[in-house]
Amino acid sequence: MSPAEPHATGGLISFVGIPHVSIDVGNLIFGDSTTSLQRSFIVIKNIGEGSFGSVSLCDWHGELPYEVPPSTPNINGVTRPEWTGMRLVAVKKLKRRLQHGWDECQSLKELKALHALTPHPCVVPLFDVFLSSETSELYFVFEAMECDLYRFTRARKGRPLAAGLLSCIFKQIAAGLHHIHSSGYFHRDMKPENILVATSGLLQSQPDEQKDVAVICKIADFDSAREISSTPPYTEYVSGRWYRAPEVLLKQRDYSTPVDMWALGAIMAELINLRPIFPGTGEVDQIHRIIKVLGDPADYAVDEHGRSYGGGPWPLGLELAKRLAFKFPQTEPRNMYTMFDKRTSRQLVDCISSLLKFDPSLRLTSQQCLAHEYLGECLPENLPCMAPGLDIHSPQPVNSK
Which residues form the Protein kinase domain (predicted)? Predict the structure, then answer.
């Protein structure tokens, strides 16, 4: 057996992976194709499968650049005492085999994005990455979280999220997006399944004093991420359809960070009602679902704050639709406040409305979300504990890229 060939002993998988990876000031440092390191882990269970590959929950036995503390025995809300003390990680193995070695791996957009992002408490950390020289399979090692936001909300079985929990989730997603955008990237695939969560204690919500669990949120899955400064055109198929921005649906090829902000608006609307706001069955139906809520991109009257009702005007959208032989049906926008429970914060509804604008330039940015009045009104004081030295409360200056 080759020293690089994976082998298992008593469930332990062990092989030499390329390259050697170390850490310096919180950042991963990759060796070249001549360096290697022994990787050893036990697969506990499969936690995800897709066209890209598979993700498994594993007990890590080898070295890691990051120190991974022994885990608590609670995953997906289920107590698993047999996992106590394990070094739990999520190992993602790509289906695509990279026959040209580590040099080919370094050209992957996902790896470039992950390597470019410095550590942040609202972005899932990459612990290690390596290539099997025997099978040419690439592995990513991430922090293990309990579940994703989709599974978290489904597990509540219709029980609404407390006001404080909603604001806590919004704050963390916005902070994660701000870090990604400030680092010169946009995610392109924001949806509840790509927001990982871990629960922690009780959260005293404000102002209704309703108790709910506290949640730590981290943005994951960067295989669709692109550099803001990269040259279009981009592929039009990004993000789950229900969270896809109108410019993408209408085949605009030079979109950017506002597609992530549209998705954030759709996600927050879903968290309030525990059902998608635009559950289209296809791309055309998706556009019609959006129009039924936001109206067509015409110049309607403005409210008392000078903001357009509904999705607002979007001249370029009318042109994009014309190129596709699609005509927006003349539709008045719905009153956004009537779409949510009357107890929902009006500031939150205002924020969602400002994210769900047809014209990408009119949507709130991640930095504007972090400074929004909604968070000043509803954010609990006892946010989940974050990693030492990393603060989501003070956004860094926006990258000029």
Answer: 41-375
Cβ atoms of 175 and 199 within 8 Å: the answer is no
Contact predicate 18/3, CB 8 Å: no
Catalytic residue among 59, 128, 148, 189: 189
Tokens 């609990």 appear where? 380
Contacts from 102-111 at CB under 8 Å and sequence distance 24+?
Answer: 102/18, 102/19, 102/32, 102/33, 102/131, 103/33, 105/129, 105/131, 105/138, 106/30, 108/138, 109/223, 109/225, 109/226, 110/140, 110/222, 110/223, 110/225, 111/140
Q: For residues 258 and 251, what is the distance between their CA atoms, to the nearest angstrom?
A: 15
CA 191 remoteness from chain centre: 6
* Residues, the chain: 401
Give the pairing of strands 211-219 and 195-204. antiparallel
Would you list the DSSP string of 93-160?
Answer: EEEEE-TT-HHHHTT-HHHHHHHHSPP-TTBPPEEEEEEETTT-EEEEEEE--SEEHHHHHHHTTTPP
Q: What is the pLDDT along the chain (401 residues), one digit of tens a residue?
A: 444 445 555 589 999 999 999 988 878 999 999 999 999 999 999 988 877 889 999 999 988 877 776 665 555 455 567 777 788 999 999 998 998 899 999 999 999 999 999 999 999 999 999 999 889 999 999 999 989 999 999 999 999 999 989 999 999 999 999 999 999 999 999 999 999 998 876 565 555 667 888 889 999 999 899 999 876 656 555 558 999 999 999 999 889 999 999 999 999 999 999 999 999 999 999 999 999 999 999 866 666 676 667 999 999 999 999 999 999 999 999 999 999 999 999 999 999 999 999 999 999 999 999 999 999 888 776 666 554 334 444 444 333 33
Grouping H, G, I as helix, E, B as strand and the rest as coil, residue 377 is: helix
Structural domains in the chain, CATH included, are 7-143 (3.30.200.20), 147-378 (1.10.510.10)
3-state secondary structure of 253: coil
